[in-house]
Structure formats: C-alpha cells, structure tokens
Design goal:
Helix content: 25-40%
Number of strands: 17
Strand content: 15-25%
Radius of gyration: 21 Å
CATH class of the largest domain: Alpha Beta
Number of helices: 15
Number of domains: 2
C-alpha cells in the first residue's frame, strides 16, 4: 500500500501580497469563522474516507495558505487529530508543517501551534530589508521577521524560512548576505525563490503595463548561485532547485510532491491527486470560502473540477518535478509506477541531445540535471515530454 500526504488549505491572509497567485482572501483574525471552517474540513475528510483505503503510511500533513498561523490553534489541532486518526497514524511519526507569516507569529502563537501537534513551522520571511519588504507588499519589517524566526526556532523542533531574491535593486551580494543572516538564526531549512511575476496578480498587471521594476536574467542567475554558496557555507545542502537543508532536514512533504506521491487535498481551493479503481484523478475544490462551506454543509459537490490523469500525463509530471531534485529520478521506475512507456523514440532522442548540451546527465535509467544547468530545469523537462 503506497504512502500518501495530506495538504490542508487555509484561505485567509491579513493582506494579499501583490506577487501571490495562491487562493487567499484578506481578513482580520476576529472576522474568520475558525470553528466553522474546521467543521467543514472534518466533514470533507469524512466524505473522502473511501479514497483513503488504498493507502498505507501517512508521510506528512501540510497546513498551507493563506496564513495558517492566523487560524485558532485549537481548531487546527482538531483537524490534525482527525486526519491522523483517519490513517491510524501517530503524531510522532508524521511531519506536520504549518505555514506562518511574521505578522501573525510570536512566541505564544508558535508554542500553541506546537502544542496542537505541529512539529515543523515554515515562516514566510521573504526578506530582511525593510524597503524590499515594502515593495513586496509585506506587512512586516526585517526586525519582525527576525523575531518571528527566533520565536519559531525556540518553540518548534524543525523550522524553515522562505526567502525571495532577485528583487529590483538587490545585488547578488545582498541576496547572499540575507540568506546567510537568516540561516545564522538557527535555521536548518531555507526555501529561496527568485521573484516570479505571475499573470492575474497585481505585479503581473504592472509588468504587463511596463510599470514594474525587474531584475534582468543575468543578475537573477548570479543571485541563484550566490544564495547557494552562502547557504552551503553554513551546512545547508542544495537538494532541490529552490530548497536547501542540513542533511536529514529536507521537507518530507515537498519530497512527496517531487517524487510523485499521491496527496489528499482538503479545504477551500485545495488540489488533490489520488488513485481510484478507475485510475488516477486530480481534483480542485471550490475556491471561494462561502461556496465551499455551503457545499459541504448541504452535501453538494465540493469540487470545482475533477480531471482523469493518463499514465503519460503522470509520467510527464514525474519528469517535471523529479528533475528539480539534485538526485533526479529513475525514469524506468517512474514509468512502471505510472503505467507509461519510459523511453519512447522521441524521449531517447531528446535526452541524447540534452546530454550533449550539458543540460542532462543520464546514468542508465536515472536522469538528473547538473547543478550548473538547474536554472534551465523547466525547459529541460519540457523537452523530455
């Protein structure tokens, strides 16, 4: 019986950031129906019990958003206990992560989350420079970010922080210094992302109109390697394109995505990928909280879409995600697990071409992207589709 992970979406933030394309809605903590949302998640979990029967070990539970640190920890704990009970899992055996923002994370909040069963906090620092944080639309400043990370490190056994680099006006040296300063707070995991402009966001609209200052690609590449060097000097290994960890501190939940595990999605706007008797499907829940809550309460369908996934689609996704890992993936093994053909004539030809260009390393059936070519990983994966 294969392992599985669970993703739980909390759709509320104090403010919508201009670069964010995740489903989130601005709300004050006092205006959120904390208990009602937990009740809805429990009802959805009960509906999905038949989908759980084919799975074995529960690897991880991830509370994402939105800003789960805004959620009342008692209600978050209720949901977590129900998920663990549904799989017959012990809290001590499961990685349980909650995303937090510095604007809603202090020492007491961190302790309450850990008391509710969370054993890994992921802090959305994004930066330590006040001017850059203002540009990114963040509600916190650099000192607040540092205080939040320190509170998390003191309260939780495992802590990660998110960092955005390649922001206008930031040099590679600044990006490296910021990453190093974060790691020096006691972090054993850092997720570092180049600022990406997504359509449908405020930044996306400004960029479309030519009104958003951007970093050129060359500066972005320099920053990518400068951040890597700074974190490596502090013992954090670059194990995935955007993720660095002390060996043994890698995110089990994200490794599940990159290695192709099925995942159960719960909550407003959550995605899930599960395997049923008729094959694999991907579903997306209703993205508006009121519609989601009404559907759960009335017994109406809660999915916005349900998409069957062909073996070839699943294999392409395994290639796209697996090549982000330093270890790469065993293509033949992935093909056996998905029921697709590993080495079609077209894929063989594309792989040979990529190897000659230095974009891919092939060792039998195992393929990986060399470190110096990681910046082109998405294009490399697409050529193997």
């Amino acid at each position: 019986m294969p392992p599985v992970t669970v993703y739980i979406h909390f759709p509320y933030c104090l403010k919508k950031c201009p670069y964010c394309d995740f489903v989130s809605y601005a709300a004050e903590r006092a205006n959120i129906d904390h208990e009602g949302y937990a009740d809805a998640l429990l009802a959805e979990l009960e509906r999905r019990r038949p989908q759980l029967a084919r799975y074995g070990a529960l690897e991880s539970v991830f509370f994402g958003g939105g800003t789960p640190s805004l959620w009342d920890s008692v209600q978050l704990g209720r949901v977590l206990r129900a998920v663990l009970d549904a799989f017959g899992a012990r809290n001590a055996d499961v990685e349980v992560t909650a995303e937090c923002n510095p604007s809603s994370l202090d020492g007491e909040t961190a302790k309450r989350l850990v008391g509710a069963g969370v054993n890994r906090l992921s802090v959305g620092v994004q930066g330590l420079d006040d001017e850059r944080l203002h540009f990114l639309g963040r509600l916190h400043g650099g000192e607040e970010a540092i205080a939040a990370v320190r509170a998390a490190v003191e309260a939780a056994p495992r802590v990660s922080a998110d960092l955005i680099y390649a922001v206008a006006g930031q040099s590679p040296e600044d990006a490296a210094a910021e990453a190093g300063r974060l790691a020096d707070l006691g972090l054993r995991h850092v997720s570092a992302y180049a600022l990406t402009i997504e359509p449908g966001t405020k930044f996306g609209e400004l960029a479309r109109r030519g009104r958003l200052p951007l970093v050129d690609d060359g500066r972005m590449v320099e920053s990518f390697f400068a951040v890597e060097e700074a974190l490596a000097a502090r013992g954090l290994s670059h194990y995935e394109v955007s993720n660095h960890a002390v060996p043994g501190e890698e995110s089990r939940h994200n490794l599940g995505y990159w290695r192709g595990l099925d995942y159960l999605g719960l909550g407003c706007a959550a995605y899930g990928t599960v395997t049923e008797t008729t094959g694999a499907i991907r579903y997306r829940n209703l993205p508006e909280p009121k519609r989601y809550l009404a559907a759960v309460t009335s017994g109406a369908p809660i999915e916005l879409t349900v998409e069957p996934l062909s073996p070839e689609t699943r294999l392409r996704e395994r290639i796209m995600l697996g090549l982000r890992l330093r270890e790469g993936l065993d293509l033949a093994e992935a093909a056996r697990e998905t029921g697709a053909v590993a080495w079609t004539r077209e894929r063989e030809a594309a792989a040979s071409k990529l190897v000659r260009r230095g974009r891919l390393v092939r060792e039998g059936d195992r393929i990986r992207v060399p470190r110096e070519a990681w910046i082109w990983v998405d294009d490399t994966a697409a050529e193997l589709f």
